[in-house]
Specification:
single chain, about 350 residues, alpha/beta, 3-stranded mixed β-sheet, 11 helices, 15 strands, about 20% strand
């Protein structure tokens, strides 16, 4: 679906590049049998489940430390601090794409494709409290889909949706995790223009998430146009050009072997410096020319997350959800290492 851009004259006037990110520390991380049917990037590894979790936690902690060192605020949710959720298994909680935030204060929740992914929404209360404790205002909550809807219909949030918040447009490749009906609901509820199309991996199957092959920056787009089927390939290209984006093309091999599309533009709260965060694997997959084009807009920052990529089938951007909410005037942020906070952290903040 393609339509004219009604906001052309207002483009690029506001900066929505995130300086605050939400991440979930892995507690139950491991190979998820439920999601393996369409995630060909997941693999079994020859180490114990305990070693997998330990390595994933080390990679996660290093990632968080790197972001904080660069001046990006990171709100970490930690399920291990919530005893009542101990038996609620969330092998993919490290990829928090079940919610998104909007600059107008809206917190959107999405219907996930499998029961284990739906379980992650048990972290909602922790998320809402963490946002308040860190000084962010939630004005309203929108829930897309119901647990009573027919099985197999889903829209996996920031994995399925590629937002251009500067121009109020959402792009989405349809898949069994990206339902067109739910997409229409999201666009109407959040006030966006929607663009949908079909995609194809080298296996012939659709890409289950759009953020595998498509990163939207403020002034650029890293995208695998070859992933888009038929005439819509050229239409998406024309749309991005009309939105004022420099298109940096990547190949399906770069997407499927290196996670080159799973990257995100972010900025420091200390000095406003911009970065594009990606995994070490993605960095190795880019050509020098592509990295040079990206570097015109932001410094490239890479992190080693080999275990998370190999076992979980997701990369650097999958682990991040942007916090674009407005800050509460006069509210002192806790700046906690993780949430829920303990009593001592609360006392320090007060």
């Amino acid at each position: 679906q393609f339509s004219k851009n009604p906001n052309r004259e207002n483009m690029q006037t506001v900066d929505y590049v995130p300086s605050c990110l939400i991440m979930v520390r892995p507690t139950d991380f491991g190979f998820n049998e439920e999601t393996a049917s369409d995630n060909v990037f997941q693999h079994h590894v020859k180490i114990t489940s305990k070693e997998v979790i330990e390595r994933a936690q080390k990679e996660f902690d290093t990632y968080v430390a790197l972001l904080r060192e660069k001046g990006i605020k990171v709100i970490v949710l930690d399920k291990s601090r919530i005893p009542e959720l101990e038996k609620v298994k969330m092998p993919d909680d490290i990829f928090p794409n079940w919610f998104s935030t909007e600059p107008n204060g809206t917190l959107a929740l999405y219907r996930m494709h499998t029961p284990s992914r739906e379980n992650e929404k048990a972290l909602f209360d922790c998320l809402e409290k963490a946002l308040y404790d860190e000084g962010f205002q939630v004005n309203s909550t929108v829930s897309v889909g119901s647990k009573y809807d027919r099985a197999g219909v889903s829209l996996e949030g920031t994995g399925a949706l590629v937002f251009d918040r500067h121009n109020k447009v959402i792009f989405m490749g349809t898949s069994q995790r990206a339902d067109a009906g739910y997409f229409e609901t999201v666009c109407k509820s959040l006030g966006y223009r929607g663009i949908t199309y079909q995609t194809e991996m080298t296996t012939g199957e659709p890409y289950y998430h759009s953020d595998l092959y498509f990163c939207m920056g403020q002034k650029f787009a890293v995208i695998c146009l070859d992933a888009i089927k038929g005439d819509n390939r050229e239409k998406v290209k024309q749309e991005l050009t009309s939105l004022g984006k420099e298109i940096i093309e990547i190949s399906r091999e770069q997407v499927e072997k290196y996670f080159c599309g799973n990257i995100l533009e972010i900025k420091s709260r200390k000095d406003g410096k911009r970065y594009v965060i990606m995994s070490k694997k993605a960095y190795k997959g880019f050509t020098d020319d592509q990295l040079s084009k990206i570097s015109k807009y932001a410094e490239v920052l890479s992190v080693e997350i080999e275990t998370i990529e190999e076992v979980g089938g997701g990369s650097a951007k999958c682990m991040l959800t942007e916090c674009l909410l407005q800050e509460i005037p006069g509210k002192k942020a806790m700046n906690a290492d993780a949430h829920p906070c303990d009593a001592r952290t609360l006392e320090k903040a007060e």
